[in-house]
Design goal:
Number of helices: 5
Number of strands: 0
Number of domains: 1
Helix content: over 70%
Strand content: under 5%
Radius of gyration: 15 Å
Low-confidence stretches: none
Largest sheet: none
Mean pLDDT: 97
Shape: elongated
Distance between the termini: 10 Å
């Protein structure tokens, strides 16, 4: 139950990322969240929307794992949480170190919980 709760929280976080990147990128809240100014936000809006779409796919996969039948639920959760970890580590290396703590660390914790508790 704890593992599924963590997965849902991480999925909701990725839905929030989707909203920020696809719909609020060039709005004050989106620019503040990503440290952009209006000029940079306008130049990168299409890229951010694409990035948001991928966050939506991660959220969908995580939610799928919560409702899938065993043993596929564990396999799906492991795959999509692993994708989140990889995306978070890559983002921490290339964009901002805080992504490691906001995105990758929660997924690592969820992976530990679903496999060992």
């Amino acid at each position: 139950m704890i593992g599924k709760t963590l997965i849902v929280i991480i999925a909701l976080l990725h839905i929030y990322f989707l909203i920020l990147e696809m719909f609020l990128w060039d709005k004050p809240i989106g620019m503040k969240a990503f440290g952009n100014n209006l000029e940079k936000a306008k130049l990168t809006k299409v890229l951010a929307q694409n990035q948001g779409l991928y966050n939506g796919f991660l959220a969908a996969g995580l939610l799928w794992s919560v409702y899938a039948a065993a043993p596929f639920s564990l396999q799906l959760a492991s795959f999509f949480l692993g994708c989140v970890v990889i995306a978070g580590v890559y983002g921490a290396i290339t964009a901002s170190r805080k992504i490691l703590y906001i995105q990758a660390l929660p997924a690592v914790i969820a992976l530990v919980v679903i496999h060992f508790f």
